[in-house]
Amino acid sequence: MKLSIDPAASAPPFEQLRRQVVDAVSDGSLAPGARMPTVRALAAELDLAVNTVAKAYRALEDDHVLEGRGRAGTFVSATGDPATREAQLAAIAYADRVRHLGLGEAEAIALVTAALRIER
Fold this sequence. Notes:
Blueprint: H1 13-27, H2 39-46, H3 50-62, E1 66-68, E2 74-76, H4 82-101, H5 105-117
Antiparallel strand pairs: 1-2
Helix pairs in contact: 1-3, 2-3
């Protein structure tokens, strides 16, 4: 996802940034669990003050779009109804685990597909 700031826009930069992230989460181009750039890195990339990006991130955390995990960074929050949020969190945990095990995407998806087909 590419973020940009229009200096000629009437909306302040922090609001432009906040809106772009919300839109990206809504349209799926930023998936739950995606790691966001650090405040400093994004500020440098967009040529903004660090406090401007920090303000946008705080607003997005207040709106539960992003979640800060301390030193681990800032991530896109799970969204939707409770069942969808729980499934998203389980998918994130599964993806982390299969990466750790060295499995590829196709193999990981095949395992999930097989598991979903089993009647319990």
